[in-house]
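Example is below:
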Amino acid sequence: MPGRRALAVPATWALVVWVADEGMGGLPSGVSSLLTRYPGAALLYAVAAAVLLPAREPRQKAAAAAEMGVLGIYWSRATWLGLWMGAALFSALPQTGEGGLVFMLSTDQAEAPGALRSLDSSELRWLTVRNTTVPGITLAVACLAVGFAVFLGVLPRLFLSVGVLIAVATWVAPENLGGILTGSTTDVGTGPVLILLAVAFWPAGGRAGRWLARAGGAAGGGA
């Protein structure tokens, strides 16, 4: 199927880039966070490709694009949950030293244009008078809520919207729009891909209430 190959090939290349160029998104060092581009844009590209990889047979009762893919409803939701649980874990860890939040903001401030540079300066001043773990802990709680709510099908539209807001806020503020305005970046950052994933899990009109009821039988929906 051409559509499957069209996603599988770039997804494989994205994994190579994630390991060889992005240093696995900083995960081995423990300083990766949604505030510092967790888990690496390249890995998110591969995750999005896996979630959206078309199944061989159409899924007539799928309520969202993610349910129509080869992972099916259960494993696609498990992927979503794992992504956001990881975000919670790493965001709650101390963001200090090289690769941490203050380090990234200081680096971005030197390259950012006007308004974003001022935003970085304000964030750095705030972080110098308050514990850097405060935003991380707050973000971790929100990430857990987004992950488990969508996995269980509890108010999915509400918590997907929260996920989108988190993605936009972290992409604009700490990430400086992924650095696209500096001309020195090779990707758009993690925010847009997280938004794409949220859209993939968005239930079709009138079907949100069926998610939790269907979750029990979802494990049988493989490829």
Notes: The chain is about 60% helix and 0% strand. Residues 2-205 form one domain. The CA atoms of residues 18 and 150 lie 26 Å apart.
